[in-house]
Amino acid sequence: MTHKELKSKALKNTSVRKEYEKLEPEFTLLKEMLRARKKTGLSQAQIADKMGTKSQAITRLESSLSSGKHSPSLATIKKYLEALDCRLEIRITHN
Asked: What are the structural domain ranges in the chain?
């Protein structure tokens, strides 16, 4: 079974789908951060150097967003994006 097939099957379960949807903001943020990093062509090690940290910290930052187990601070996210010469824009919308 492929990842796509497994995901499709799992999301048919209402409780799984609700939990997955709760993580949507984190998934979106991670996707945008990775897209920005890819666009700049910088490696995790290069970003870490610009941030004054170790590459393992960048690996943890990126993986924490995909796992939903830890939410990095806005300050950390801003510092990461500044290393990419990007900025964070936040928008609040009503449901």
From this structure: 3-83
In this structure, how many other beta carbons lie within 10 angstroms of the beta carbon of residue 30?
Answer: 19
CATH class in words for 3-83: mainly alpha
What is the distance between the alpha carbons of residues 77 and 14, in angstroms, rounded to a whole number? Answer: 31
Each of the 95 residues of the chain gets a pLDDT tens digit; together they read: 898 899 899 999 999 999 888 888 888 888 999 999 999 999 999 999 999 999 999 999 988 877 767 778 899 999 999 999 999 998 898 98
Closest by CA position to 25, among listed 77, 79, 82: 77
Give the global pTM. 0.75
